[in-house]
Specification:
The protein has about 300 residues and is of the alpha/beta class. About 50% of the residues lie in helices and about 15% in strands.
Length: about 300
């Protein structure tokens, strides 16, 4: 059997940044008010300005995002476990979906929580290119996946040396209007967080990161929560990126550099728990979900 792993993607090198941003903005032009005559030229101008800002972030983490490489590693491991051929196809970075032949039996979005802004965008592109295919909508409820998240947090607690930390579960933000229109993303992450944190006798909350553009987005933002925790007398903060399964620009720059600077300025002891995509629990969780889905189809 052939399984397609899909995700929006990420620039692997600094040279790919402009191409990635352009593909993304052009694809969502209907939703951001840019579906107008001359849209390509307008978006190219936006991309130039945005890329200059983003490029500095990539430089700060060594010049590339490891996201595609790490997802390729997961695909290889799952293929070895299941015996299925696993292919990787991204919406906006290589390997691009449009460069594939469409010969696969199941689509597996690497977003464990469904959203119309992420999972569904990948599925729409797949339908446009290849027609209807069986797919996994979301897979966060798998018990091995829950345990994988808990183990990442446990490792973070051990590595931090913290005795009484406050835990922030960081989630990539979305425009609030998306949630108001019925997207389950926010409430699903809350369910996931509650399931994960049952294993810990620690105070915790969800906060949001990676707001992009204007308008009202889901909050509070992580820096706002850090400010509040400082005023409440909290001394130790452990942050875990709940909405990701591999390290990327949002974790390596935003959480590790940008938000740590905020914590340092406030005098908070700050540690970000890492995403161990090589832990066998993650590939076992994905393999289980794939086998169940194939058996149902």
């Amino acid at each position: 059997m052939r399984v397609l792993f899909t995700y929006m993607g990420a620039p692997t090198t600094e040279d790919e940044i402009e191409d990635f941003i352009f593909r993304f903005l052009y694809d969502v032009r209907h939703h951001i008010g840019l579906n107008v005559p001359g849209a390509k030229a307008i978006i190219k101008g936006i991309v130039k300005a945005r890329a200059r800002h983003v490029r500095s972030h990539y430089e700060a983490i060594g010049g590339k995002s490891p996201l595609v490489d790490y997802m390729t590693e997961i695909a290889k491991t799952v293929s070895e476990k299941t015996g299925h051929e696993i292919r990787l196809g991204m919406c906006y970075s290589r390997p691009l979906l449009e460069e594939l032949d469409g010969d696969f039996d199941l689509v597996f979005p690497l977003y464990h929580v469904y959203s119309s802004s992420t999972t569904e965008r990948c599925l729409v592109k797949i339908r446009e290119l290849f027609g209807e295919k069986p797919y996994v909508k979301e897979w966060w409820e798998n018990s091995k996946f829950i345990r994988w998240v808990q183990r990442n947090i446990e490792t973070g607690l051990e590595d931090s040396g913290f005795e009484e930390p406050y835990v922030i579960l960081s989630v990539h933000s979305l425009p609030k209007k998306v949630i108001d229109e019925g997207d389950p993303y926010e409430r699903t992450h809350l369910k996931l967080a509650e399931r994960v944190m049952k294993a810990f006798d620690l105070p915790w909350e969800i906060a949001f990161q990676s707001k992009f553009g204007k308008g009202e987005w889901l909050g509070p933002a992580v820096p706002e929560v850090l400010e509040r925790l400082k005023s409440e007398g909290v001394k130790e903060v452990l942050v875990y990126p709940l909405s990701f399964i591999v390290e990327n620009i949002e974790t390596l720059y935003e959480l590790d550099i940008e938000y740590k600077e905020v914590a340092d300025r406030l005098g908070l002891n700050y540690y970000r728990a890492k995403l161990n995509h090589r832990d066998p629990l993650l590939s076992e969780a994905i393999s289980e979900v794939i086998e169940n889905a194939l058996n149902e189809n």
